[in-house]
Amino acid sequence: MTTTPTTLQAEPWTSLPSQYRNPSTSSEHSQNQKRGKPLDSFLEGPIYVADLALLFVTDIPYGRIFSIDSHGTWSLVIQYDGEPNGLVWNHITRKILIADFKQGIMELDPITKEITVLVSRYHGERFKGPNDLIICSDGSVFFTDQGMTGLQDPTGRVFKLYPEGRLELIVGNGPSPNGLVLTRDESALFVAMTRDNAIWYVPFMKDGSVQRIGRFSSYYGIGGPDGMAMDSEGNVFVAHSTLGVVFVHRSNGELFLKIRSPVGVSTTNLTWGGEDLKVLYIVESESGTVLRVDWHCSGWLVKERSIEGTAA
């Protein structure tokens, strides 16, 4: 028996201040990915760094990374020649990793503001265009190489970057691979395949190889699933890029809740923050707004597992 999911509305928390908005069609992101649509910003990649009590977000078209404090005050951390999309906090190096569409996988020291490129090629060829990334408890990183792939060109990739620098291809036939989330025991990976309008489930064998990839969930609409998150109960949160909805699934795939945006339909990414990680922050990209939802349990972050040794 199918049940109708409950609907919950997120609350606007803070928006990009006017002094940081720059409406223009001249950015490469506007020309190449938005068909020349003027963009004063396009926010993505939120992460909460508890050590600094700051939320970080990217602004893709203008190569910017911002921090936001608990009062909703914005600060420009860095602006550089790139298109930063996904972020993740490396709990081992204490630095921010960036999936940059233009530059590759980068590393940012949030204190010194030093930024470096970690890897930009695979077998000598440049990446198509990295989109998002997630870190494992041992410091290994999974990232998506989306580029401009889609159903017409299902060659998007998912890589695993090991701490010593070795790069391994995990998936090579993805129609626009985007957001990522790991199961709590790190035995499987969920990948948002945006142009397939679906979440793929990628299970790992004991030796780390992949077998029998399947679809965890399917959606509808012009865009598709983008960023993802997981809570401590194993529920999977999926932000849809053109419906203004975050779909919340149980670990078996059952949809039981929809979180709606009150300010726009471009809900692209989300992360956990606040006290005990019980606040879900959601980015509505085109309006430059960060939404929030108070959740009943803590969110799941790899740092929590690696430091506290929590079992899945």
Automatic annotation (TrEMBL):
Keyword terms of this UniProt record: Metal-binding, Zinc
Region (Disordered): 1-36
Regions of compositional bias (Polar residues) in chain numbering: 15-30
Positions of the catalytic residues: D226 (proton donor/acceptor)
Domain SMP-30/Gluconolactonase/LRE-like region per the UniProt entry, residue ranges: 44-283
Cofactor descriptive note: Binds 1 divalent metal cation per subunit.
Molecular functions per Gene Ontology: metal ion binding
Residues reported to bind a divalent metal cation: E44, N178, D226
Entry coiled-coil feature ranges: none
Binding residues for substrate: N131
Pfam families hit by this protein: SGL
PANTHER family (UniProt xref): BLR2277 PROTEIN, LIPOPROTEIN-RELATED
Protein name per its UniProtKB record: Gluconolactonase
